[in-house]
Design goal:
single chain; little secondary structure; two-stranded parallel sheet; 2 strands
């Protein structure tokens, strides 16, 4: 089943990175249209997709999710 993008990044469930099983994957980096505002200062994982846990893309571009159009209104700004 395909899943829709959350209406706000923090509505997505907390998912831990497969690299260590301890570090949360950054939901803002994956779902917010402007990405994570903390950039390199963010302590959360920016390498893995929050949706499928694969390297190489973010959840907004994940083939397992629907509604992944850039600037989609389902991604609220903060």
């Amino acid at each position: 089943l395909k899943r829709a993008l959350p209406k706000h990044p923090l509505r997505a469930p907390l998912v831990l990175s497969p690299k260590d099983g301890l570090t949360p994957i950054c939901r803002y980096h994956n779902y917010h249209k402007n990405g994570c505002s903390k950039g390199p200062k963010c302590l959360l994982d920016h390498n893995y997709c929050h949706a499928c846990l694969e390297l190489g893309h973010i959840a907004r571009n994940c083939p397992t999710l629907v509604g992944k159009v850039q600037g989609d209104s389902t991604n609220a700004e903060t």
